[in-house]
Write a structure and sequence with these properties.
mainly alpha
């Protein structure tokens, strides 16, 4: 009987973690789409200052996602994957905060070149976490 209670608790914990992850990811996805729209408009009209403002807003969204990951009660079998996702999200936020304050287009391009590899790592870690929760 004790096993059934533990198993039921794990299922509830897993379901809550999935719901939390889904909500956080949906919010972040909306922020990324908004960033893409804003940065596209900035490149044609607003210049570096405009793009940096969009970077700052996206950085805040990655900060929130990272905080959501650290405060979600993931099952122990998913904790390592959640920690990895939290870490890469935090690194993306840090990068975006940094590029939001650079002084030149050349510096911006040099620093922002790190975004794609980190974004790919984020995507991989997200899928690993989702798979671990199934």
């Amino acid at each position: 009987m004790a096993f059934a209670v533990v198993s039921a608790g794990s299922t509830v914990n897993r379901q809550e973690a999935v719901l939390s992850l889904n909500d956080s990811y949906a919010t972040l996805t909306r922020a990324v789409r908004q960033f893409q729209t804003e940065s596209g408009a900035c490149s044609s009209a607003g210049g570096l200052t405009c793009v940096e403002a969009a970077d700052g807003r996206l950085a805040t969204s990655f900060d929130k996602f990272s905080n959501d990951m650290s405060s979600t009660n993931f099952p122990s079998s998913s904790r390592v994957a959640a920690d990895r996702l939290e870490s890469v999200s935090s690194r993306l936020a840090t990068l975006l905060h940094q590029v939001a304050t650079v002084q030149s287009v050349a510096d911006y391009r040099a620093q922002f070149s790190q975004f794609q590899p980190l974004g790919s790592e984020f995507d991989r870690d997200y899928h690993v976490l989702r798979t671990s929760l199934v």
